[in-house]
Prior knowledge:
The complex is a heterodimer of chains A (692) and B (251).
Chain A: H1 2-31, H2 38-56, H3 60-87, H4 91-112, H5 124-127, E1 129-131, E2 137-139, H6 140-162, H7 164-174, H8 176-181, H9 186-211, H10 219-233, H11 238-258, H12 263-277, H13 293-301, H14 311-318, E3 333-336, H15 340-358, H16 365-390, H17 399-414, H18 419-441, H19 446-464, E4 476-477, H20 489-513, H21 515-525, H22 527-532, H23 537-563, E5 565-566, H24 568-571, H25 575-587, H26 593-609, H27 615-630, H28 634-643, E6 653-656, E7 666-667, E8 681-682
Parallel strand pairs in A: 7-8
Antiparallel strand pairs in A: 1-2, 3-6, 4-5
Helix pairs in contact in A: 1-6, 1-9, 1-10, 1-11, 1-13, 2-3, 2-4, 2-9, 2-10, 3-4, 3-9, 4-25, 4-27, 6-7, 6-9, 7-9, 7-13, 10-11, 10-12, 11-12, 12-19, 16-20, 16-23, 16-25, 16-26, 17-18, 17-19, 17-23, 18-23, 20-23, 25-26, 25-27, 25-28, 26-28
Chain B: E1 13-22, E2 25-35, E3 40-45, H1 51-59, E4 66-71, E5 74-75, H2 81-87, E6 89-92, H3 104-112, H4 122-128, H5 145-157, E7 163-167, H6 175-182, H7 185-190, E8 194-199, H8 202-208, E9 211-216, E10 219-224, H9 231-239
Parallel strand pairs in B: 3-8, 3-9, 6-7, 7-8
Antiparallel strand pairs in B: 1-2, 1-4, 4-5, 9-10
Amino acid sequence: MSWVNALIQGILLGGLYALFACGLSLLFGTMGVINLAHGDLAVVAAYLALGVVAVTSIPMVWAFALVVPIFAVVGYAVQRTLIQASLARGPFTTLLVTFGLSVVIQNVLLATRSANSHSLNIGSLVSRSFHLSGQISVAYLSVAIFTVAVVVLLGLQYFLSRSSTGRLIRAVADDREAAQLSGTDHRHVFGVAAAVAFATVAVAGLAFGMYSSFAPSAGPSRLLYAFEAVVIGGLGSLWGTLLGGIVLGVAQAIGAKINPSYGVLAGHVVFLAVLAIRPEGLTRAGDGAGPRANLRRRWAARPGVVRSRPRQTITADAAGPARPPAATDAAPVRVTRSRRTSRWLGVGAVAVVVLLAYLPYLAYSGTTDTLVNAFILLTLASMWNLLAGYAGLVSVGQQAFIGLGAYLVLIMAQRGIEPFVAIPLAAAGCAVLALPISWLVFRLRGGYFAIATWVVADACLLLISRFQSLGGGTGAALPGLSSVNPDVLPAVTYWAALTVTVVALAAVYLLLRGRLGLELTAVRDNEVGARSLGVRVTRAKRIVYLVAAAGCGAAGSLLIISQLNVEPTSAFSVGWSAQMIFVTVIGGIGSIEGPIVGTALFFSLQQSLAQHGAWYLIILGAVAIAVAIWTPRGLWGLVSGRVHLRLFPVGYWLRAEEAPRGRPGRRGGADGSRRHDEPPAVVGEGAAGECL
Amino acid sequence: MTPATSSSVAPVLEVRGLTVFHGQLRAVSNVSLAVGPGEVYAIIGANGAGKSTLLRTVAGLHRPAEGSILLDGVEVTGRAPDRRVAAGIALVPEGRRLFPSLTVEENLLVGSHRARPGPWDVARVYDTFGWMRERRFQRALQLSGGEQQAVAIGRALVANPRVLLLDELSLGLAPVVVRKIYGVLPDLLASGMTVLLVEQDVSQAVRVASRIQCLLEGRSTLEGPPDAFTPAQVEAAYFGLAGSGHGGGAG
C-alpha cells in the first residue's frame, strides 16, 4: 500500500517539476536561450518572499502576490539587457552568460544570507493532510501545488495559443526577421516572453520553498530536475513537460521508497534511460498540431552544436583569408607555421618549464602547493577550451571526470598501486568511461548537451557515494603514499602536476596542429559542408571528448594526491566547471594561450580576495559575463590581436620569400587597416584551428 | 545620378546613392531611384546583382554604408524594420517566409497588429483571394507555394503600407500561378499603393512596371521606362555584355 502512496506523492511532485520546467522551455522555445540560472532564480524568489515578509511583516501569501510580478519585471529587464546583449553574440554566449549569472546569484546569496537552509511557512496548510485510506495520506500542500501547476500550464497554453501577444511570441519564435517585417519589435516580444517565464519561475520557486527547504546552493539541482522533466516529456511540448515531470517525480518517489538516498539517482537513471532509448522524449514531436509546435520545430530545425559555436569570435579572422596575398604572382610564397617571434617564445616556454621544474629546490612548499592547484586548474581549463573552444562541446559536467579520476586513483591505491603510477592509468580509465557517456550525451546538442553532462556528473556523484568501500558520502583518505618520504612528497606531487600540465598542453597543441585540428576547423566553419567532404564530425568531436575526459581525470588524480583524501561532493562539484569556464573565457577561448593567461589572473585574484570568501567568485562571474559579451576573444585575444604573438602556432602564415627578414608581417583578418600592396602579407592564419 | 520620376509629382519613396556591404563585398553600389505615387517600379538583374539586398535595405534589414532612404520626403534610413512598417514600408520577403506554425488567419493578424489606417484588412484580403477564407484555419505550412505567396502578400497588405516591396514573387512558382499573383497588382494600385518590386523574370517585370532599373554586380546599368529600351539593350545591361558601358568583372 505504501507503494501506492509513493506513486501518488510522485505524481504530485511531478506537477511541481512541470511548473518549474515550463519557464525553461518557454525561454528556449522563443529565443533559443537555455537559462542555466533557472534554478537559482527560483531560489532567489523564495528568498525574496522571506525578505518581503521580514521587511513588511505582511502574511506570506501576500508576499507571494508581490514576488511574482516583481519577477516578471526583472525578467523583462534581464532579457532586454543581459540576454539580448548575449543573444547578439550567439547561443554559445547565452550559455556562458546564464552560467555566470547562476554562479553570481549563488554566491551573492551566500555572501548576504547564510548557508543555512530556510523554508517558506504559510501556516496550517503545509502540515495538514487528508487520508484517502488507512495508509495513504496526501498533504494538502502537494495537492495545492499540483493544482497550481496544472492551472499555470493551462494558462500558458491559453496565452500562447489565443492571445495576440502569444501569437506574436509564436511568430517571433518561427521567424524573427519575418516578424520584424510584420511590424513586430522582437526585442519587446522576447522581453514579454522572458517576463512570463520569470513569473512561472517565481511561482515554482515559491512552491519549492514551501515543499522543501532551500539554501543558496539549491539552484543547480533544481535546474537539473526541470531539465530532466523537459527532456523526458519531449522537447517543447507543454503537456509532455507535465508528463515528464510526473515520470521524474514518480521515479524519485519510488527510488526514495527503496532507499531514502536513491531518490534523485533514480530520477537521473530514468532520464538517462529515456535519453538512450527514446531521445525524442515520451511524447513524440508530432505533426505540428500542438499549439506550441513552433517551439518544437525550432528545436528540430536547430543544427545544434554547430550553432553553438562561438560565432562571434570567428568573424574577426574569417574575413582575413579571403584576401589573397598581393605578392603571390610576383614572388613565391612560403607557408610556415611559426615565425621568429613564435620560435623565441617557444624557447622561452621551455626555459619557463625548466625553471618551474627546478622550483622545489628554491621555494617553500607553500608556493609549490599553490602552483599545484594552479596546474590542476590550467589542465582543466585547457581541456574545457579544447571541448568548447575548438569542438563546440559546451560541457558543464567535466567534474564527472575529475571525480572519477580521483576515485580511480583511490581504488588502485587501495589495491596496492602506487598513486603516482596510477595517474596515467586513471586518465586512461576516464577516457574509457567517457566513451559510453559520449553515446548518451551526444544525443543532445548545444545547451541541452551542457545540462546532460551535468546530470551525468551528478549521477556519478550519487553513485560513488553509495560505495562504503570508497568512504561513502564522507570520502576517504588516500593510502599508499607512506612509502614516500614526507619531506619530498610535496616536491614529487609538484613535479607530477607540472608533468601532467605540460603533457596536457602539448597534447592539445599536437591535436590541433594535426588532421583533427583541420577537421574541427572545417566543422566549425560549416558542419554540413565538412560532413559532405568526408569529415567524420561525430568522430572528431568524440576524440576531443575522450581526450578532455582523460585530461580532467589526470587533474582529478592530482587533486586526490595533493590533498591526500577525497570527498565526493567537492570532487564532483560543479564549482570546477565554473572555474574552468571562467578561466578559459576570461583568458581567451579558442586559443591555447588563453587558459594560461586566465589561470594566472584567477590565482592572483584569488590570493588578493581570499579573505572575502564568496566575493572572488562573484567578481569572477561578473567579469566572465562582461568578457563573454564585450570581448569574446578574452584577454589573450585583446593582446594577440594587437601584437600578433603566438606561443602555440597552430595556424599558418604566408609570406613572400624575399620579404625583409625580421620585419613583422601583417596578419590578415583581425587587422583593421589592411593594405593590398603590402608585400610581406601574412594571411590565412587559422587554417588549422587557430583564430577562433 | 538622381533619376527623375516619370511624373513631376513628389516621389513616395526615394533612394539616394545607396551603398550596402555584405562583409567585404560591395553588394549594392551607389544606387538611386525614385518611385512616384501609384507607380510600379521594377528592379531587374541576374543572380547576385544586389536586387534583394537593395530591397531589404529599404525595408530596414540591412544598414547601408552610404546613402539615404526617404519616405514621402522624410528620412527613414536609421529606423528599425518594425518602425518602417508603422511608417508605411512593407516587404514581402523572398521565399515567402510565412510563420509555419501559425494558421493563415494568424499570419494575417500578425501582419495587421501595427497596421496604419487604410483600405486593407483581413476581410479584404479574403475578398481578393477567394479561396483563403475557407482555409483560414489551416496552417501556413500546409499551403502550396502559390497559396503561401498570396498569404505573404496579404500579410504585408493588411499593414496598409504606402510602399509595398515585392521580392521575387515568381520564385519557384509555375507560370500560371505567377500570372495569377501578378493579377492582383492593379487592385493594389487602385487602392493608392506604390510598388517597388524585384524580379529575375525580365518579361514579367517589363509587363507590369512603369519604370525599370537594371543592376549588375551592385551597380545600376540601365534606368528608365521599359518602352525606352530595345530588348537587346536590356539584355546587354542584364548580362553586362560589351557595349553596355560597364567594365566590371563580367566577361
